[in-house]
Design brief:
single chain; 287 residues; alpha/beta; Rossmann fold; 2 domains; five-stranded parallel beta sheet; three-stranded parallel beta sheet; 8 helices; binds flavin-adenine dinucleotide
C-alpha cells in the first residue's frame, strides 16, 4: 500500500514502485495544514489496516510525520534506513554509516506497525504490471488540528532537471575556486542534459546554495553518471554519491581519494579539461 497525494502521474509512480493499492490524502493534509492533519489521517489508516511496516521518504515532511506518528502510536521508528528485513514480528534495518563503510543494524521488536524512514535511492523501483487501485481518503480536518497554518510559500527557482531525478550529475568542489567558475559546470550539464551539484566546501564558501549539496548532510543521488570535478572524495561526500552507476573524476591530484571510487578518472586541471570536454561533446552532438 502506498499513501500519498492524488494525481494521475502519481498513480503511475505508485505502479512503478510496485504498489498494489494506493490511498490518497486530500491536498490539504500536508501542504497547508502542517503535520497534524496528515498524522491524524495516516494514524487512522494504520489503525484500520495494521500494516507490518510503513515506509516514509527521508524528506522534511516524511521525518516530521514519522516523529509525530511514533509518539502518537507509541511505536518505534528507525531513520536513515538503507535496507530492511521482516523477521517474524520484528524488523531488522540496516543503516549505512560513515559513507557506507559500516552497516549498523537496528531492530524494532515491539508488536504493531513499524515506521521506517528510508534513505533516497535505497531501492530499485519494481514495476507492478497490474492496475493500481486508488482509494481517496479525506484528510482529517478537525479544528484542533489546525494549530499550524501556512503563512507563506517561497518557491525556489530551479532550472533543468532536479538533482534527485537527474541521470547525469555534474558536481563541483573547492577546486572550482569561486562562484563564477560554476558556470562551466552548468555549461557541461546543459550539453549533457544533467544537473549541477556541489560538495559542502563549495556550499560553505557561499558559491552555490545548500540545495545543491551532495553528501551526508546534503542530498543523496544515484545517477547513471556522476562527475566529481575538483572534489577530493571525503567520506561525507562519498556517502551521497557512492552508489552512482558510473563515477567520472577530474582532479589535478592523482592521490585524491575519489579516484579509488571512480570508473573513469582524468588527472588534470579542471579549467583546461572541462572546456575541452564541452567542445568535444558539442562536436559529437553537432551542437
Ligand atoms: C559532519 C560533517 C558533515 C559533512 N557533510 C558533507 C556533505 O554532505 N557533503 C560534502 O561534500 N562534504 C561534507 N562534509 C565535508 C567533508 O568532510 C569535506 O570537507 C568536503 O567534502 C571537501 O569538499 P571538496 O572535496 O570540494 O574540497 P577539498 O577536500 O578541498 O578538495 C578539493 C579538490 O579539488 C582539487 N583541485 C583543486 N584545484 C583543481 C583544479 N584546478 N583542477 C582539478 N582539481 C583541482 C584538489 O586536488 C582537491 O582534491 C562534512 C563534514 C562533516 C564533519
Amino acid at each position: 500500500m502506498g499513501v500519498g497525494r492524488a494525481g494521475e502521474h502519481r498513480r503511475g509512480l505508485a505502479a512503478l514502485c510496485g504498489a498494489e493499492r494506493r490511498q490518497c490524502l486530500g491536498q490539504v493534509a500536508q501542504r497547508e495544514g502542517g503535520v497534524l492533519p496528515a498524522a491524524e489521517t495516516v494514524a487512522g489508516l494504520i489503525e484500520q489496516h495494521r500494516p507490518a511496516v510503513l515506509l516514509f521518504a527521508s524528506s522534511y515532511a516524511g521525518r516530521d510525520l514519522v516523529s509525530n506518528l511514533s509518539a502518537r502510536l507509541d511505536c518505534g521508528a528507525i531513520t536513515d534506513v538503507g535496507d530492511f528485513q521482516l523477521k517474524d514480528d520484528s524488523v531488522e534495518a540496516t543503516i549505512p554509516a560513515l559513507g557506507a563503510s559500516y552497516q549498523n543494524i537496528s531492530t524494532l521488536v515491539r508488536p504493531g506497525t513499524k515506521l521506517l524512514v528510508v534513505r533516497p535511492k535505497s531501492f530499485e523501483p519494481k514495476l507492478n504490471e497490474q492496475p493500481v487501485n486508488v482509494e481517496e481518503v479525506a484528510a482529517a480536518s478537525a479544528e484542533g488540528l489546525r494549530k499550524v497554518q501556512m503563512k507563506d510559500r517561497v518557491v525556489v527557482k530551479r532550472e533543468g532537471p532536479s538533482l534527485e531525478g537527474a541521470k547525469i550529475v555534474i558536481s563541483g568542489g573547492r577546486g572550482l575556486k569561486g562562484e563564477e567558475q560554476f558556470a562551466i559546470l552548468k555549461e557541461l550539464a546543459d550539453v549533457l542534459g544533467g544537473a549541477v551539484g556541489a560538495s559542502r566546501a563549495a556550499v560553505d564558501a557561499g558559491w552555490v546554495p545548500y540545495a545543491m549539496q551532495i553528501g551526508q548532510t546534503g542530498k543523496t543521488v544515484k545517477p547513471d553518471v556522476y562527475f566529481a570535478i575538483g572534489i577530493s572524495g571525503a567520506v561525507q561526500h562519498l556517502s551521497g554519491m557512492k552508489t552512482s552507476k558510473y563515477i567520472v573524476t577530474i582532479n589535478k591530484d592523482p592521490e585524491a581519494p575519489i579516484f579509488q571510487y571512480s570508473d573513469f578518472g582524468i588527472v588534470g586541471d579542471l579549467f583546461k579539461v572541462v572546456p575541452q570536454l564541452i567542445e568535444e561533446i558539442k562536436k559529437r552532438k553537432g551542437l
